Amino acid sequence: MALKFTSIFVAAALATTTAASAQSVSAAYPESIAAALLKGGYKAEITTDSAGDPLIKSAASGWNYQIVFYGCEDNRACQDVMFAAGFDMENGMAIKSINSWNENKLLGRAYLDDEDDPHLVHFVAGMDGMPAPAFERLIERWETSLGEFAEYIGW
Questions:
Q1: 99 in any annotated domain
Q2: pTM listed for this prediction
Q3: Structural domain contains residue 1
Q4: pLDDT tens, residue by residue, 17-53
Q5: Distance, C-alpha 113 to centroid of its chain
Q6: CATH at residue 49
Q7: CA-CA distance, 27 to 68, in Å (whole number)?
């Protein structure tokens, strides 16, 4: 009788774990991030970067961005992600403007590339089993930051 009860308990626990993980996102499973984006009405194209690690191409409010994966083992089992958007400007930007942006923002740090083009990034460490509502909030805040940055740089 105890064995039967234990088996039922384990099966119930596994079902609960599976249901919970189906509603979460993880850098180890790029498909979970893409599915959450699609569910939120965003586009999500899974591809790979030049090193063979996963890469998701998406957009928010008309601005393209990528989700870059870090801490991967053999191009799988990634641990972290970074949201990244770049803007190719004819004359670039001044470092003073980028520094001013960074002084006042928590989410969405900016930098200039070697052509003084602005880039907006947000690194998320340890994205493993992030609950769907937390990921939705992250995407909402990223979208807001991306829109504010595009306006800030006059894009």
A1: yes
A2: 0.84
A3: no
A4: 344 445 899 999 999 999 999 999 999 999 999 999 9
A5: 21
A6: 3.30.1460.10
A7: 10
